[in-house]
Amino acid sequence: MNERRLIPTAVVTGAVVLGLTALSACSASDAAGHKSGDRLDVVASFYPMQFLAERIGGSHVSVSTLTKPGQEPHDLELSPRQIGGLSDAGLIVYLKGIQPAVDDAVELSESKHTVDAAGLTTLEDHGTEAGGEEHAHEHEGDEPGADPHVWLDPVKYAEVAKGVGKSLEKTDPDHAADYRKNTDALVTELGALDSAYKKGLTDTATTTFITTHSAFGYLAERYGLTQEGIAGIDPEAEPSPARISALHSVAEKKKVTTVFFETLASDKTAKTVARDTGLRTDVLDPLEGITGKSKGDDYIEVMRSNLAALQKALGAK
User: Fold this and answer.
1) CA–CA dist 39, 34 (Å, integer)
2) One-character DSSP codes across 305-316
3) Where are any strands of DSSP class E within 37-130?
4) CA distance 281 to 268
5) 254, exposed or middle or buried, with CB in 10 Å at 0-12, 13-18, 19+?
6) Please, are residues 300 and 194 in contact by the beta-carbon 8 Å criterion?
7) pLDDT in tens, 88-137
């Protein structure tokens, strides 16, 4: 992944203390606020976790997200109110390794009602081919080899969905049957998405794509593709001449046609690489948030748009 501005741990810790202090002054018990009427209060760290909570929880949950639509999730800073609210949530759904501020806040909140999506599937190591650098280690606190972008692989995302469903069943057993039903329906839908990717990417002119955001390692591995990320460079920064040269060689050798950029960052880097390598640009959405610029209203729709973009770029037959 690209280098991001990370929040110093000391700053996060101080904010957590303020948030928890404020909470203790206004909450009568640990259970207070776990329900909004008859619905379970669920806090999601960012969009991929929000989507799971809403689809599986259905009418039995009230879901809020720590990351606003259009906000770059890696740079998230939490307010004392948000931090305090973590201890008051019925369930926290997050993905360790993506947002250091959230990881620290969840740990220091000592909430007993949490589910870490990173623990619901097997994390793998993905680097950038031409550069030889590994983007997965650019997150503060990551374990070696831990690429957290599991939601971009429908199969792994389905594994996470099953774990979130079980957590909801345990947290709110009165509605366990509905959570199981909703989980099964979502897993079936993700299975159909996986089948569409397999079929749509089976016969292509090339299997290599270039992206400013090295988030697609799981997706590439799942469907026999090669991701060439502009590693170690922020999406809005100029790539080095050496990296452009390396990408130019890869593009020529592997018949690459497109440099992909993401919706929540500038396309400046993609345009620079495309101009210097004679390639075109397009969007490959890492689905870290849904905005008016997203090519779809939810995870499934945007993933199908991503498939169409990949088919075009790779010359699917």
Assistant:
1) 8
2) HHHHHHHHHHTB
3) 39-44, 61-65, 91-94, 114-116
4) 10
5) middle
6) no
7) 899 999 999 999 999 999 998 888 899 999 999 999 987 545 444 433 33
